[in-house]
Amino acid sequence: MTRALIIVDVQNDFTEGGALGVDGGAAVAEGVTRLLAEHRDAYDVVIASRDWHDADNDNGGHFAVGADPDFVETWPEHCVAGTDGAEYHPALDTAHIDAHIRKGQGKPAYSAFEGIDETDRTVSQILDEHGVTEVDVVGIATDYCVRATGLDAIEHGRHVRVLTDLVAGVAPESSERALAELAHAGAALTESSAVGTAAAGD
């Protein structure tokens, strides 16, 4: 069994004080860092995604321009490439990350599987290269990019766990629905305490 950790969009603009900050975002960054400090050897590869939007266009209608965002399909400007908002939250220790995925360059993108790394590899290709069958998903936001990434991982044939103490969502109700949808699709909902234990391989 080969396992990967996918860290979804733990960026300044998605944490407290950011353009689309969610409550609990900084705690997710701290918790993921703690997980990797204690259990890096539980993972054969660690992948982290970031929104990395263009500055000079509306990114395929993703940014609301000249109108109020609906916070469903259109959003305020966020995670613009090269800005502080697009950077990882400072509490996230990036030393343990093997692959850095950028997504949303000129178009809407929610799932980490929609992005590429600096060598144009997709998440699916990286997982294939490492023979990964098991994926743990953490990050922001539960009800959007975590949801989409988890569903895509299942669609790509991986067994998925969502570590529910290491995700943060936009709203409680939509986050609960997202987790229920992931569970219905086959994901296991567990906490990070399961990582590194005998039960983690069950």
UniProtKB/TrEMBL annotation:
Q: Give the metabolic or biological pathway.
A: Cofactor biosynthesis; nicotinate biosynthesis; nicotinate from nicotinamide: step 1/1
Entry keyword Aminoacyl-tRNA synthetase: no
Report the EC code(s) recorded for this entry: 3.5.1.19
Task: Identify the domain of life.
Answer: Bacteria
Q: Which UniProt keywords apply?
A: Hydrolase, Metal-binding, Pyridine nucleotide biosynthesis
**Is Secreted one of the keywords?**
no
Isochorismatase-like domain location is 4-192
PANTHER family hit by this protein:
LD05707P, PYRAZINAMIDASE/NICOTINAMIDASE
Q: What is this protein called?
A: nicotinamidase
